[in-house]
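Rotation project, supervised by the postdoc (A.L.). Task for the rotation student: set up a whole-complex structure prediction and record inputs and outputs verbatim in this book. Inputs entered:
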Amino acid sequence: MRREPLFRRKTSISYKTEEKTVLRGYNLSDLAEEGYSFYDAIFVLFQNRIPTDEEEKMLKYEMGVFLEHSMSPSAVGAIGVSAGRPNLPVCVAAAVSTFGGVHGPGAAHGYMLNKYLERAKKEGKTVDEMAKTLVDEYLDAGRPVMGMGQPQHIDSDPRAEPIHLKQEELELEGVYLEFQRAVEKYFHARRKKDGRSYVGVNVVGSGNTALMEIGFSPNAGWCIGSVVRGYSCAAHALFNMKKGRAWGASRNEPMVQMIDLSMIKYVGPEDRIVPKQEERQEYAKKQKEEGEYKKWVI
Amino acid sequence: MGYLSKEKQDALNREKKERGIGNLGDPKNPFDYYEREYGTVPRDTNRAPFQWVSEVAYKNVHRIVARGYDTTELMEEGYGVIEVLFVDYQARIPTVEEGQMLNYVMIMALEDGMSSPAAISRIRGPLQDVSDPGLRGLHHGLWATPTAPTRLSATGSITYLNIADEKGLSEPG
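Outputs recorded:
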């Protein structure tokens, strides 16, 4: 039977036939058989190249250290969703869905670095000068500097500085590390001057810097972080599916559960009478006039 | 907040009963609607307070620890994602051969050309929005990178070993 394709899917990433899957020209089976690592394959996937030994080690370190973070919004998201007992992929999707401005791999940090480095080039400023500009502009505007601060690791993120050090040990320092280090320097100085407490670099600030130094785009860094964190969040969800209580509200457990009724603290309007429909119009008008409802509007 | 005072509860119930609310006062209901409490359930002080229970990992201000191993120390000692997956899922460091095997499997599972998750992820939108449907597309009929270890043990290997056994395609070893 002759078939006319309705559309063709174009891709520069991979193709497959009945016999093989080919990633950027490399047969996946050949890559695995020749002893390449998962990290090498990630380079091929995102950058279309085999990395140097040092680059592979850097990626291995960054991915490994980012994988597990115990109870963060992503793990809690996966656990919360698992309480309803959906399939595991839904829990992983929920975990990834928690990633945003203050949690997760954070492509925004990479875009911030790129934007200001581009400005440095255009404005003829040094990396150091532009780092100060970045810090001042962000803090003057009351905006958080991407890659700084972690609400749980208040002294300093245990993953962050070791990533910087690994990058230096592997002699992979470049403009990104130079810029990031300068941003941290001016950030600390500015907070000190303003009489504010110390806030260290976080895993995105150092990890993303390392990833960009070895050629990954901010979005690629986001994908890499999402994949590895997905593994640990799947583990947390799986643990709860296998060893936790569904729903998370059982009164038979010796410990109060996640959504036990007693966990609800309600601070809204007190219980009140629902108006009959014939009373509604007058009631609604009065409610609007009195305006007390405004303090609850969100 | 806790329950409202007895006086408030009684007053509310009395007024509601006098007004009547649809079928809620119907005697066919297995409860007396106008005897029900208002306000939230008070804190349960007879049981231990809620905590996030995990066998997988904990963290404090200075450490992230998976199955007893500090994850930063794991990296400093030259381990990586492959080993942390064994640590997270099996609470152990894999042998070199096991690490190589998982590495092999993960490379093979990394890319599958134009499969359903890849196809659906190509619909334009924020990266997060296109990756989630891709993830959700990874059910038992498809490989799932983040869930591959689970699928291998839970569904994939058992299913395919059974099929191979039934068809006499290989000797289960």
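Student's summary: The CA atoms of residues 121 and 133 of chain B lie 7 Å apart.
Supervisor addendum: Chain B touches chain A through 78 residues (CB under 8 Å).
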